[in-house]
Write a structure and sequence with these properties.
Blueprint: H1 4-31, E1 41-45, H2 51-61, E2 65-70, H3 73-87, E3 92-96, H4 102-115, E4 121-123, H5 132-136, H6 141-157
Parallel strand pairs: 1-2, 1-4, 2-3
Helix pairs in contact: 2-3
Family: Belongs to the short-chain dehydrogenases/reductases (SDR) family.
Keywords: Membrane, Oxidoreductase, Transmembrane, Transmembrane helix
GO molecular function: oxidoreductase activity
Length: about 160
């Protein structure tokens, strides 16, 4: 004899398990979908490695207005030319930014607030690491560079 309860449970499992995976995949897609950057403004603080450059390039491909901020203006200008060549997006501005000087940061923030209606994204992915060498030799340039990348974010928020 056939037990209908067993067949019902087996049928429910066969139909409900794939539905669970479909719903989970749907939710994961919407949680992790890329942000649409068209007609938005992003400030990208260029780092030494080039990760922020890659992010700026991706935003430029999506027709985002980009403000490249860097201590080295020549490096930022070459990055701007490369990004324009790749993305055909001409809405890229280069501004000099030295994160070690509070007055420069303040002027940068004031200029941005005057020229831009809104800032949608700020990319400042420079890392921070404090080692014993930095504490011992805190007057040296290496420690200063590591500290400036960390505190730049906090100074910009003021």
């Amino acid at each position: 004899m056939v037990k209908w309860s067993t067949i019902t449970i087996a049928t429910a499992i066969i139909y409900l398990v794939p539905v669970k995976y479909i719903i989970t995949a749907f939710i994961d897609y919407y949680k992790n979908r890329p942000i649409k950057m068209k007609n938005r403004t992003a400030i990208v603080v260029l780092d030494k490695i080039g990760l922020n450059y890659e992010k700026a390039r991706e935003y430029a491909k999506q027709n985002c207005k980009i403000i490249l901020a860097s201590k080295n203006v020549k490096k930022a200008e070459t990055a701007k030319k490369e990004i324009i060549q790749i993305s055909k997006n001409k809405k890229i501005t280069v501004i000099e930014l030295d994160c070690t000087k509070k007055d420069v940061l303040k002027n940068f923030a004031e200029n941005i607030s005057k020229t831009e209606n809104s800032i949608d994204v700020i990319v400042n992915n420079d890392g921070f690491e404090m080692t014993e060498m930095d504490i011992i030799f805190r007057d040296q340039k290496l420690a200063k560079e590591r500290l400036e990348t960390h505190f730049c974010t906090f100074l910009l928020e003021e």
